[in-house]
Amino acid sequence: MESHPLPKASALLWASLLLALGGAALVLFSDLLLVGGFLLAAGALRLLSILAPERLPGVPRSLGWGVEILQALVAVAAIVVVARSVTGTWPVMVAVESGSMEPNINTGDLVFILGLNRSNVTTLRDGAPEGYGTFARHPDAQGNVVFGDVIVFYPNGNTGCTPIIHRAVRWVGLAEPIHEAARYPALHAGYLTKGDNNPTVDQGGSFSRHCPNNLPVKPEWIVGVSRFRVPILGYFRLLFPR
Predict the structure, then answer these.
(1) Could you tell me which residues come within 8 angstroms of residue 182 by beta carbon, excluding any fewer than 6 positions away?
(2) Confidence at residue 171, expressed as pLDDT on a 0 to 100 scale
(3) How many Cα atoms sit within 13 Å of 178 on the Cβ side?
(4) Are 20 and 39 a contacting pair, CB within 8 Å?
(5) Of 30, 74, 104, 207, which sits with the fewest C-beta atoms within 10 Å of its C-beta?
């Protein structure tokens, strides 16, 4: 049986398709958004030059990749500018890694967020009188109805740690008691947070050396306010560790 080498155009077609798909995976499911966006745009433009070369008129073959790389950079810049303009934050989505918010937000959910300049934070305490709450279909682990917004923030402001997605419970001022027992006064003003599936608020508890989350959340530590979720898709993001 004779074997025939794969035509060059066909090989480039498949390579470009894989490049675009790999870039799309990075954009959707990893922290390498800019790299993924570049690969996606470069692969898509190369596919366009193969399948519809008339769409890139006057570009010599020897300059094709160079022109497409430049176009890819422009496309990525446009994507970033548009995404940040619409949502007011970056990244625009996070994958849920634990069950601390179950059953309202589950492990493997992909959650889309808005920045603080696009959305206010309503705490559980402030949302209760109006019956306002997001991701509030089920009660918390203690059987209480939940209200208010769910925020994404860096624990103790440490951007080297994985962001936490928990409900904003209430705002505390400097030296205000975190717990009713008043054993833990707040070292600064900020939000108290709690996972719906956790027994107590995050702040004021035992100190952990690995990414501690024992301080009230300052507004500048907040990545965004959670607005909606897509189940399961977050599992693909979790394949790419931070």
Answers:
(1) none
(2) 97
(3) 22
(4) yes
(5) 207
